């Protein structure tokens, strides 16, 4: 099902939607936990937020990075890139799994604020840096990165020229 959804909606848009959904769910979990002592029904808000968090993960950040990593690299470095991505994924899962209880004890009901902040950073990074790879060849994707690199270089040179004119 995910493969058909990815081909229809696009990798980047699903990834961004998943990150934003997870961010909203993390905020809802925080609100639910903070207000649980005042409103008993907040436990249902927290449960729904957890289910939505998982659903949004499965729509975006769960599978999409594997598609994008496979499409961002040419045949030569692709296995290494996928291995590095897999290692980072499992290392972060391990760290979160091992540290969550300690962080929860330290932060109390605000534990998911950390996740919300990280999700916001990931969303902004993906929004500004991750290209859409749907229907594009490796050469087209590489051309997008080259164009961005040349634009950045031109902006730096323009700033240097302005700085030398003022001096």
UniProtKB/TrEMBL annotation:
GO terms for molecular function: D-glucose transmembrane transporter activity. It is a multi-pass membrane protein. InterPro entries: GLUT (IPR045263), MFS_dom (IPR020846), MFS_sugar_transport-like (IPR005828), MFS_trans_sf (IPR036259), Sugar/inositol_transpt (IPR003663). Keywords: Membrane, Transmembrane, Transmembrane helix. Residues 1-134 form the Major facilitator superfamily (MFS) profile domain. GO terms for cellular component: brush border; plasma membrane. Pfam families: Sugar_tr. The chain crosses the membrane at residues 14-35, 41-69, 81-104, 110-128. It is found in: Membrane. GO terms for biological process: D-glucose import; dehydroascorbic acid transport. The keyword Heme does not apply. It comes from the Eukaryota. This is GTR2 protein. It comes from Sagittarius serpentarius. The gene is Slc2a2.
């Amino acid at each position: 099902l995910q493969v058909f959804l990815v081909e229809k909606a696009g990798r980047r848009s699903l990834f961004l939607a998943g990150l934003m959904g997870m961010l909203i769910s993390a905020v809802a979990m925080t609100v639910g936990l903070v207000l649980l002592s005042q409103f008993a029904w907040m436990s249902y808000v927290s449960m729904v937020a957890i289910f939505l968090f998982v659903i949004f993960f499965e729509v975006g950040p769960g599978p999409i990075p594997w598609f994008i990593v496979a499409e961002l690299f040419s045949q030569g470095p692709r296995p290494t890139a996928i291995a590095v991505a897999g290692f980072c994924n499992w290392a972060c899962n391990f760290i979160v799994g091992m540290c969550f209880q300690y962080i929860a004890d330290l932060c109390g009901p605000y534990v998911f604020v950390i996740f919300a902040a990280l999700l916001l950073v990931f969303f902004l990074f993906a929004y500004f840096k991750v290209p859409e790879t749907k229907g594009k060849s490796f050469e087209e994707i590489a051309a997008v990165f080259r164009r961005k690199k040349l634009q950045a270089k031109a902006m730096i040179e323009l700033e240097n020229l302005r700085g030398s004119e003022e001096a």
